[in-house]
Amino acid sequence: MSSGKFQLKVPKGTKDWADKDMVLRTAIFDTIVSVFKRHGGVTLDTPVFELKEILAGKYGEDSKLIYDLKDQGGELCSLRYDLTVPFARYLAMNPTVQSMKRFHIAKVYRRDQPAMTKGRMREFYQCDFDIAGTFESMIPDAEILAIGVETLSDLGIKDFKAKLNHRGILDGIFQTCGVPEADVRKISSAVDKLDKLPWADVKKEMTIEKGLPEEVADKIGEYVKLKGGPELLEQLKADQSLMSNTSAKAGVDDLTRLFEYTDAYQITSYISFDLSLARGLDYYTGLIYEFVVASSAPPPSAGSAAEKKHAKKSKDKYIDDDDNSENVGVGSIAAGGRYDKLVGMFSNSKKGDIPCVGVSFGVERLFSLIKASINEDQLRANDTEVFVMAMGGGEGWTGFLKERMAVSKMLWEAGIKAEFQYKTKVKFRQQFEAAEKAGIPIALILGQEEYPNGYVKIKMLGTHAAGDGETVKVEDMIPTLKEKIATVNSTSALIESIRQL
Description:
By secondary structure, the protein is an alpha+beta fold. It has helices at about 20-40, 50-55, 85-95, 140-155, 165-175, 185-190, 200-210, 215-225, 230-235, 240-245, 245-265, 305-310, 340-345, 365-375, 400-415, 430-435, 475-485, 495-500; strands spanning about 40-45, 50, 75-80, 100-110, 125-130, 160-165, 225-230, 270-275, 285-290, 335-340, 355-360, 385-390, 420, 440-445, 455-460, 470-475.
């Protein structure tokens, strides 16, 4: 091994998670999973890397962000870019599975420009919920949107919107305006940047960079600047030119039905029908959506400059910028859509298509939002509920080490999270300081005189401290502790406290 010095750091776009950050992230996971299970989801796991050919051609212009791996044993593999394509591959490999409500929480990898403080990373968790199978139109789509609203609400995220559009409407707009079929996806990718760039920059990309006639771009601009609620559908229905397009009419019919269902779920107020939303991924076929908050957009003056800066970089090279948080918003905190043809891409059977719709939550972005809204004093690095202490002294005092071990064993078996200090004789004050430093809410004190006679003292600590404590019999120790534990805010109650902020 070389003796030369090297810089000790994690790779760009990654971070170590420890202590309070892990506590908060785990609470976020637990909240999301509880919603997924509430809606009947079953979990699935897939390999962290896939055959390169499985991922190729599924992500449009974003395919350049896939991490390719070195050839090992004759197989070319890539790190997974998302959890959707692996799910579609799984369905194609298991043809007996014709319907499924699946959720998956796992890391994905993107060779993207990092913006660490905004949760935009190269290695990050996605939490996906998908409904696969043939059902009546828009029923699964409406439930997926309801899952999105429930999850963000349960996480204490406020003032969010679900921006939605329909690929059929967007494709119909492009066809009506005169976009060549071969150019639809690359023009769609340009339109999708309207949440980051002004129309003038998007138009420039469509015309100068992608060769679209200016008059066609102007026609598109008249549509993609429109946004609103269900009333926007009536405006589109009155557009005879657009409604003569089969794709656009089918999309408007879908959304008309969808808004009836979102009314039933009482979530329509969260929805913004936005014709600029395009979603760059190639596999979407119908409804598409992004959940956003005010901080999702980049700073007003930064977007265009950032775009120009990164346009200069070679597409064949890694994007090596460090944290670019000042130029980047949080981005969408969840997104998804309908992808009815993706499974069929992997199937040799003509009947291989399985309609699917899903939503994906970006945990690191949610983490950034939630952490910014809370007082970190609410967090502690462990879940320990009781610190077992010994109090005594003088000649013959043993420190009650074995007694603290035995009592801790009793608490663990009762399901109580407990600790003690790893020292034979330890000063009473040091034990209190250790417990309070860790934020442990309850002390269980084994007194030199009291414990041999069958008694212990239970004392609340920190913000829960009250009085000198309560002396109880050893046989009453566990039920008394459980009563007191129920009165303090444990980590499991963390998200509930966040919701009340």
